[in-house]
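May I ask you to comment on the folded chain given beneath this request?
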Amino acid sequence: MTTPPILLPTPSPSSSSSHPTSTTSSKPFHVLIIGGSITGLTLAHCLTAAGISYTILEKHRNLLAPLGGVIGVAPTGARILDQLGLFENLNAIAQGIRILCTGFPDGSGISQAWVREFEGRYGYGFSIVTSQQLLEVLYTGLGERAKETVHGGAEVTKICHEGDVVKVHTRAGNVYTGDLVVGADGLHSIARSEILKIVGRNAIAETSNLTADYRVHVGLSTSVPGLSTSEQIIRSYDGFALFVFCGKDGEVGWFATEKLDQRYTYPERPGYTEEDAMAYCESMSDVNVWGDIKFGAVWKARTSFSHALVDEHVFSTWNYGRVVYVGDSVVKISPNSGLGASVGMECAAALTNKLHSLLSSKSPISKPSTAAIETLLDEYTNSQHRRARMIGFASYGAIRLHSRDGWLNALIGGFVLRSERLAVFWTTVIMRGGIKLDFLPVPRRGSEKQRWNMRSVILLVSVVVVLLAVVF
């Protein structure tokens, strides 16, 4: 299904926002968000709910550029969307996952229903939606205010601290002034580049920890006979893995992760072209997806296709001065975990919680000092970094188990991917630490159904430790 484009307004230089440099001002605290991404738009909703003004600067005119495929929304992300009044709109287009089908190189396969447990536990299950659909829900949910607050064609070129404000310059000649800049513009974040120039060598050296052992091929296809809605298919092979999902309208989302011949360290990149990626996918035409379905049928029905390296790393430097990163600007994880979108939503909620708490304690005419903002951002970074590292660890393991990377992962994966209880345990650990908006009520479905039994968690941890000790 083709999603109509959303063309963002492009302001003239005279319409850029401006705020005085004094910390005491009648103008409200203003946040400049770089990137109209899922994370950036979620942050806009969170700030709106908190009564904090913002402007989104998106370099593209078309918010729904035909890139990407399907993404997962975990219960933690769904709860935040529900608090923001967006869950019903998401639920109308998203496809819930009820059955997880996992296949192995020897032709064996299992179907598991453990994913159903989480809707009963938390009030929300796991669902899939195309990135364009979710962006549309988030953008249209902003209503008429989006025409004033979301600016297209606003490619950021420079960020400058000036006293107690920060100024953002765009290629079009606009200069925006705000009290905080949030980078939600992904790996090649201009906010990160500007911070690295200021912070120095230690932060710059950290980019050497950003590595890629895999590349991912992502696509959308029209309906393929034999694929059922509500099922997620994972096909595990030596050196690669296939993921296939069927949406509500029959549209098929898929991606394939491929182990590279070597590890690449940022900014080093292999010389893969679009033709190379297409040739690889065509070479998998006879690979089994599930039952009698071959990947060739999915590939021939494609309506969009892209490819990228799978960069992996959780950065340590998240903020400096009045600039901070959120989402995949600092948390680069594999698509295998299905948590990328929800991690970004949690970052948006966590940052807004801190801002709401700080600004609620201030006089309406008094703005926080730079020192207060830096303390707030340090607290945000410290709290979210621990959770991000845990999710990064789980994601790192998932892509290697699914692609049977080496004999050890092949051995462990054969056991782990077949164990429903282990899957439930690890997913529960991740879901349990999920962030919500502290200043908004939690909808009934997201509060009464959450039952956490720590004794069960401790027991499961003990069992896993004993099993690992026996195996190794």
The chain has one domain: 30-470. The two ends are 49 Å apart (CA to CA). The chain has 15 helices and 22 strands. The first strand starts at residue 30 and ends at 34.
